[in-house]
Structures are given as C-alpha cells and as structure tokens.
Amino acid sequence: MEDFIRTGDAMKRKFGVKIKSQRLTAGVLLVAVILFGSFGCQPSSISSEGTSTQKHPFRVAILLPRSIEADGWTRSGYQGIVLIKKKLGADIAYSENVPENDFEKVFRQYALEGYDFIIGHGNQFIPAAEKVAAEFPQTDFAIAGRYEGNNINLGSLSLREGEMAYLLGSIAAIKTKTKHIGYLGGAENISGDEITALFERGAQAEDPSIQVSIDWVGDFTDAEKAQQLAQKQINSGVDVILVLAGSAGTDVHAQAEKAGIFTLGWIEDLNHLAPGAVITSNVQDVPQMLLAGATLSNLGRWEGKQYKFGLAEGIQNLAPFHGLLSPEQESRINLIKNDILTGEIDTLP
After folding, report:
1. In CATH, which superfamily holds the domain spanning 161-284+319-342?
2. What is the pLDDT of residues 131-168, one digit of tens each?
3. Cβ proximity of 233 and 261 under 8 Å
4. Is CATH 3.30.930.10 the classification given to domain 15-144+286-309?
5. In terms of Cα–Cα distance, which of 238, 245, 240 is closest to 218?
6. Which member of 47, 120, 210, 219 has the lowest number of beta carbons within 10 Å of its beta carbon?
C-alpha cells in the first residue's frame, strides 16, 4: 500500500489537515443543493452549518489508474481530492499508478485505516470495489464512471457523456468537407460504446450520408499505436477526429494539424496542443462531481446508487471554438445544445 500512496503539496505519502469545524462553504452547499434537487432530496433540509454525521475529521481517499501527469482523466481525479480537502476540510490521500492486481489491497487498506469515502477513479475499479465494499458496510465507496451501485454503500458518480458525444458529432458533421469523420478511443468499454453510438447519432442527424470510422488503441497509453490509427483514418479521408484516448492520443492533435484536418478533445480544452486543429473539447468538471459525492457522504446521505451529472448541472460543457467555426455554425451548435438541455433531442444510449 505504501508504495502507491502519494499525497499533498510536497508529494508526501500521506497527509491531512485536521480541522475542528466541518462547516461547508457556500460553493459546496450549492453543489449539494443542485445534486439533491436532481435526485428528489429536499435542499431545505441542509443547514447553513452543513451538519456532518462524522465524529472525527472526514477522511477521503482516491485510487487513480495512472500517474497524475499522464492524462486529463487521471489529473481530474487528483484535482478532485484536492478540492475536497479545500472545501470540506477533509483528511485526504491518493494512490496513483495502482496496478490492477493491487486494487483490492489498496481499497481494503484505506478502509482499514478509517477513510470514510473511498473513490475508484474509473470503471476498471468496479470488481475490486464491490468485493471490499461488502466487507466494510459502514464505509462509503464510489466509482467515478458508469455503475448502477449496490444501493447500500457503493455507488457511482457518472457523467451523461452521451449528450456531449451527440453534440461533438454534430460539430464534426457541420465541419467535415469529406463527409467522413472518425473516433479514436483508448480501451473499449461500456462508456466508450455509448460515446461512439451518440457521436455517430449526432453526426448523422445533421447529415445521414456521413461515414464514421471508429478505432480503439486498446489502452490509454500507447501513443505510437494511436498515431498509427489516426494516420489510417487520415489516409482514408477522415477530416475530423474525436480523440478520446488519454495520454495515447495527446500527439494526435498535432498530427492532425500537420495533415490539415481537425480534431475534437475530451475532458479538458486541448486547443493549446494544436491551435489550428482542435475545434473544441468536452470540458468535464470532474473535481466538482467528486466534491458533490464527498459532500453527500460527509452529510450521511450517500445512498450507494448512480448519481449523474451533465450539461444541466454545469459539470460538462463545450470549450470555446477558438475561431474554428463560423458564427452561423456556432449558432447551429448552440441550438442543438439547447435542444439537448430541454429534452427535445434524446441522448440516451
């Protein structure tokens, strides 16, 4: 366990600031009110003191699949645990680069050490979390990803990724000149399957004749393979690629810019990687999502179910278009976005 735990400003193995007050800031209360409103809870039941059921400093830990420098997804998990410390005054710890065969061991060690809310940052943590959560029914566990939960103590914090995939598919359809667009993903999973389906649906809603090529790297770190697959798509006539491959896809944006085509990013605004190519990105405020889950746990209201976040909650949105769409194209995208928000467009899988 000690080999994987890294925390804090100086990258110490563990740290936590014990504070006597568990008061919640107005920002955290707002997140809680939005979340409770989304799931039928009464915001009025939350006092201005943010009353906690904890009799000791609230403790939160997170397991990260890769290095925090590796990619936006892993970095967002680290940023989330730091935000939880800042907003809730929690004692925190994180483990990065956790090998798959150590998932159970790290979950279990955090539970034994008395952490109240333990997060697995990605769907790959589900089997291990299920086993350990059953062993520690008084501890709250969360998966950052798609998971239905056990309705007891293991739930998930999920993004409505389909709505953004649909929107990016619309953008790709509006921007393409070849009527051939691409998706480059990391490891294929249930979330990726939903994203590809909605990306294609959004594109073909704009133009049914558009062809969509889909390729999977197989993981989120093989940059060489990602560039080979991107080149294959470019050679086939693809002129807009949605890149969702973690650190494996980082250099694909510059590769596309050199080839004179366009890309779409995911998790962070990636325009800085290739200013002439990255039209926009799905910017996900994962730290706020993790904070919302920790707030529920701190208040004793974690229900072990799936909590979903998206455009309506302000947890994901489009990055600026950086001048790569015309005003008319921007207006069209804004109309589509509004139709998604109002339910006029169905973005369910």
Report:
1. Response regulator (3.40.50.2300)
2. 999 999 999 999 999 999 999 999 999 999 999 999 99
3. no
4. no
5. 245
6. 47
